[in-house]
Design the sequence.
């Protein structure tokens, strides 16, 4: 007899997917000037999904569905919450920009929702093939989103680079999955763990090569050095709201897949030292290259690489502490990074594209609220105490010290110090440089302000009272072990 | 029937040729074809293991991979065409407004 499908497990994914198709169909019947309705439908859909995610925390009985291919456990639900928050904020950031720059492109929201759908599948996947499908579901809409601003050549170029390198990396991931399938006769992660526990013989060669190939594929999506070369170009070329979106969710999705395969389950082969090296290289390389960037999107791209390095420290630590600090850091990172990009979008909302750090000269006196907000986000990204970023980094590095990775913690803290330099460059430009040209007004859009205020409040709130959020992340990790 | 290792070596060679093609070629379409070659090499691996292990799930995965590859073709060719319309070229060295 076939086991039941157990639909409630994937209700959040279904809510997002159905909303995406509703948006696609409604888009056909809407004239160009009314496309903003689509954003409202999308926001509503994501809120419904978020509500279902919260309800699923209390799901009774069997939490596995589709013959164990997806699961609705605390880790997955926690990450789904992050994806929903990230998408919600990214939609708020996009609304005005989309209306001004490419008003006729209503499928923008469909693509964003479908990509979120893929991320959520990745978070709940318990099977390597499901992870692959979720990854492709997430990436293919992102390729299109990167190139959606066809009026700008850079956007098309970003799409091409992202697509070619993304498809290349998914080839590696797939080959790794095929080899692991050959070694165990199954791709189900729980089943593989059971087989190893039963002492079933397997070919260490296939498993070793397969694991490394899977790691390459996922590391590419997360932007781990040396698989990071697409990130600066794509982040710079893609429209700023899309960059905000893809700097948060997809990274978190790749990290959750790495956690599921290499950390949460009993590792088949010990990759701790690989993660150790990757963490050091990624942190250092990202931070060093970020110092010299003049384009703010490119600077934030390299900074996002450095942040993945900090996350890799948590992955190296592993265990409950590593998973909980990674989960907490991803939440914090999503919020503060989208906040920083929201300010970039706000300043770009003028006739020309203000994307160079030097263009920010004089903003401190001209736009005091936006400038102080940007300062707080930069401080948070740099990990200055009193902000959410500090708590996140503190958890990661204290975890590293508790588990004896002293050098990793030292290198991480030194890297944080370096990163403060280039974050402060933006602040210095805003407050201490005189503008070259006369500054024009920026049109304040309500939706963008909502995103900025939500992220600002969350960054400060998590920074000062992190207890509730930390216990959420701890709960997400503790049930996994 | 040929032993399993023959199929695995064949697919590993095809995969390597695909990787080599991606790294060596400058034409976006040929890079794209090489990526497809990599995916098809994986399909051979999956089929070989599926047949060797007497487990049908590997053959189901092949269909999933083919569907994914088709979706990638749809998106990828559109992106390449959109670049060609501006640049009149699909050489990735010409796609250099931002440094790689």
Sequence:
């Amino acid at each position: 007899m076939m086991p039941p499908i157990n639909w409630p497990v994937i209700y959040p994914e279904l809510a997002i997917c159905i909303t995406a198709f509703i948006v696609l169909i409604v888009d056909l019947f809407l004239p160009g000037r009314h496309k903003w309705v689509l954003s409202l439908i999308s926001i509503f859909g994501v809120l419904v999904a978020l509500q279902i995610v919260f309800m699923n925390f209390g799901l009774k009985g069997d939490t596995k569905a589709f013959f164990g291919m997806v699961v609705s456990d605390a880790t997955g639900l926690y990450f789904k919450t992050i994806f929903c928050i990230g998408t919600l904020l990214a939609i708020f950031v996009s609304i005005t920009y989309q209306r001004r720059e490419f008003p006729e492109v209503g499928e923008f929201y469909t693509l964003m929702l479908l990509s979120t759908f893929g991320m959520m599948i990745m978070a709940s996947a318990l099977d390597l093939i499901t992870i692959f499908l979720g990854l492709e579901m997430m990436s293919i809409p992102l390729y299109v989103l990167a190139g959606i601003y066809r009026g700008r050549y850079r956007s098309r170029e970003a799409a091409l680079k992202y697509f070619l390198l993304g498809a290349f990396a998914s080839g590696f991931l797939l080959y790794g999955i095929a080899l692991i399938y050959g070694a165990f006769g199954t791709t189900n992660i729980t089943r593989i763990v059971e087989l190893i526990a039963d002492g079933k013989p397997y070919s260490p060669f296939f498993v070793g090569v397969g694991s490394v190939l899977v790691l390459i594929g996922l590391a590419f999506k997360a932007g781990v050095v040396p698989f990071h070369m697409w990130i600066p170009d794509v982040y710079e070329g893609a429209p700023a709201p899309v960059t905000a979106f893809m700097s948060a969710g997809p990274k978190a999705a790749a990290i959750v897949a790495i956690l599921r395969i290499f950390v949460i389950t009993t590792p088949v082969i010990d990759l701790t030292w690989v993660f150790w090296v990757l963490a050091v290289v990624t942190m250092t390389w990202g931070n060093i290259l970020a110092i010299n960037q003049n384009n703010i999107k490119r600077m934030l791209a390299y900074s996002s690489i450095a942040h993945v390095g900090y996350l890799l420290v948590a992955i190296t630590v592993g265990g409950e502490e590593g998973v909980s600090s990674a989960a907490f850091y991803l939440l914090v990172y999503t919020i503060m990074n989208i906040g920083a990009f929201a300010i970039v979008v706000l300043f770009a909302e003028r006739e020309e594209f203000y994307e160079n750090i030097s263009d920010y000269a004089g903003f401190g006196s001209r736009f005091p609220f936006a400038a102080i907000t940007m300062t707080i986000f930069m401080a948070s990204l740099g990990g200055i105490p009193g902000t959410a970023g500090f708590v996140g980094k503190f958890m990661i590095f204290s975890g590293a010290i508790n588990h004896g990775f002293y050098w990793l913690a030292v290198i991480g803290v030194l890297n944080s110090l370096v990163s403060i330099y280039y974050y402060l460059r933006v602040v210095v430009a805003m407050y201490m440089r005189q503008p070259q040209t006369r500054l024009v007004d920026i049109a304040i859009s309500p939706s963008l302000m909502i995103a900025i205020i939500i992220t600002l409040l969350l960054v400060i709130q998590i920074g000062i009272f992190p207890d509730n959020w930390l216990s959420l992340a701890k709960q997400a990790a503790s049930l996994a072990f | 029937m040929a032993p399993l290792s023959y199929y695995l070596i064949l697919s590993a060679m095809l995969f390597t040729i695909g990787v080599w093609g991606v790294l060596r070629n400058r034409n976006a379409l040929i890079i794209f074809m090489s990526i497809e070659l990599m995916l098809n090499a994986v399909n051979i691996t999956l089929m070989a293991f599926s047949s060797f292990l007497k487990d049908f799930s590997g053959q189901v995965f092949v269909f999933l991979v083919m569907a994914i590859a088709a979706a990638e073709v749809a998106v990828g060719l559109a992106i390449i065409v959109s670049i060609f319309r501006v640049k009149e070229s699909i050489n990735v060295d010409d796609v250099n407004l931002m440094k790689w």
